[in-house]
Amino acid sequence: MVLLHVLFEHAVGYALLALKEVEEISLLLPQVEECVLNLGKFHNIVRLVAFCPFSSSQVALENANAVSEGVVHEDLRLLLETHLPSKKKKVLLGVGDPKIGAAIQEELGYNCQTGGVIAEILRGVRLHFHNLVKGLTDLSACKAQLGLGHSYSRAKVKFNVNRVDNMIIQSISLLDQLDKDINTFSMRVREWYGYHFPELVKIINDNATYCRLAQFIGNRRELNEEKLEKLEELTMDAAKAKAILDASRSSMGMDISAIDLINIESFSSRVVSLSEYRQSLHTYLRSKMSQVAPSLSALIGEAVGARLIAHAGSLTNLAKYPASTVQILGAEKALFRALKTRGNTPKYGLIFHSTFIGRAAAKNKGRISRYLANKCSIASRIDCFSEVPTSVFGEKLREQVEERLSFYETGEIPRKNLDVMKEAMVQAEEAAAEITRKLEKQEKKRLKKEKKRLAAIALASSENSSSTLEECEETSERPKKKKKQKPQEAPQENGMEDPSVSSKPKKKKSFPKEELVSDLEETAGSGSLTKRKKSFPKEEPESDPEESGNKRVPKKKRKFSSKEEPLSSGPEEAAASKNSSSKKKKKKKLRKLSQEN
Question: Bias regions of kind Low complexity — which residues (predicted)?
Answer without folding.
Answer: 488-503
